[in-house]
Write a structure and sequence with these properties.
two-stranded antiparallel ribbon
């Protein structure tokens, strides 16, 4: 009788630990999916084929300057992006001839 009771209790305890391990496995898989979805690459390729550093904390400034090319004078407007790693990215927006 004692052996039968011991056997039943052993099976019952294995059943409970099996259910608990399945619950932990689903929680772990859900947290891994959340981590994978939140992780994004820091470097991406822009439409010109250049590698661009992508981050939320990028400071963007629009600047303009007067440039002389031969006898012609242009006003260039460009965007400067200051990246958190110390780099800067400059992109020309427009070039208008002044004189």
């Amino acid at each position: 009788m004692k052996r039968m009771l011991g056997f039943v209790l052993a099976l019952a305890s294995l059943g409970f630990t099996g259910f608990a391990s399945e619950a932990n496995a689903t929680e772990l898989s859900r947290s891994n999916v959340a981590l994978a979805a939140g992780a994004s690459p820091q470097w991406q390729i822009d439409r010109y084929g250049r590698r661009v550093y992508i981050r939320r904390r990028v400071r963007t400034v629009t600047r303009s300057r007067v440039v002389r090319v031969g006898r012609r004078v242009y006003r260039e407007t460009y965007v400067v992006r200051y990246l958190p790693n110390g780099r800067s990215d400059t992109r020309l927006i427009s070039r208008v001839r002044i004189a």
